[in-house]
């Protein structure tokens, strides 16, 4: 989440490499100073071994640099965050990273300074730099996927905070003012009714299964969205509840931060029906006589993680 850095002398040129270290894959991109893609790689993530992850990142960077014929500045997106207190990774769902000095080990392996940030922050940075949030001063980026993350970019820089938790709204409690009978949910974090348990893909699927128990098999978020688009009333009702909850949860952010734009990413952000509805509902939940905050779809999609990691080294 930082960017935290550790250094060991190097002289990279204008090439930037962003690496997204996920639980199932490691993806990397090389871009020039204008954000144009020069090369890209994607490999399966070594599943359990921490040293193998560090070695895989070193190899993928070397491979891209060979193809591009120059040394690069390297940014890394990871799940979790770098603890400001210890420099160790915390909160990662790829648990083999937790408690490890990932930044220092990568700097050693790559022989240069590296910057490491949380993957939701990388998404927000990518969209703020040259994506759907470009030109806006304060961008709140949201990932609605298997989890529910968020990141804040202010004037082109990721806001990290003393606890490295800025933007992480997914484990606040879902507001229930407009929905007094909100179903109860337990979260893996040990809390109840976390926003993530309603707004993630599994959260949407669980909500539909709860409302339509007679369904032959539980449906995933994509199938529910397709059914709703085809006119299925129960799926439409599920999406309606989802939109109201999303607007109500985003209103918390607007009331505190009042961002200039909210950019949605992750698999659920591809549901077209969200945009008009959430934009309209937001005004009802925000403490203001009007709310004009745009809620928009990402521009870079699945590439935002790697692009944002690369932009941890700003062009300007
Ligand atoms: Zn939670």
Structural summary, described in words:
- The protein is α/β, with parallel strands linked by helices and 316 residues long.
- The protein contains nine helices and 13 strands.
- The chain has helices at residues 50-68, 102-110, 119-130, 196-199, 201-211, 221-229, 233-257, 274-285, 304-310, and strands spanning 4-6, 16-21, 25-31, 37-44, 73-78, 81-82, 89-90, 114-118, 138-144, 148-154, 157-158, 261-265, 295-297.
- Mean pLDDT is 91; it is low at 1-10.
- The chain binds zinc ion.
- Zinc ion (ZN) binds next to loops.
Structural key phrases:
9 helices; binds zinc ion; six-stranded mixed β-sheet; alpha/beta; globular; disordered N terminus; 316 residues; five-stranded mixed β-sheet; 13 strands
What would a concise description of this structure say?
With about 325 residues, this protein is an alpha/beta fold.
Layout: helices, strands, pairs:
Blueprint: E1 4-6, E2 16-21, E3 25-31, E4 37-44, H1 50-68, E5 73-78, E6 81-82, E7 89-90, H2 102-110, E8 114-118, H3 119-130, E9 138-144, E10 148-154, E11 157-158, H4 196-199, H5 201-211, H6 221-229, H7 233-257, E12 261-265, H8 274-285, E13 295-297, H9 304-310
Parallel strand pairs: 2-5, 5-8, 9-12, 12-13
Antiparallel strand pairs: 1-8, 2-3, 3-4, 6-7, 9-10, 10-11
Helix pairs in contact: 1-2, 3-9, 5-7, 6-7, 7-8
Bound molecules: zinc ion (ZN).
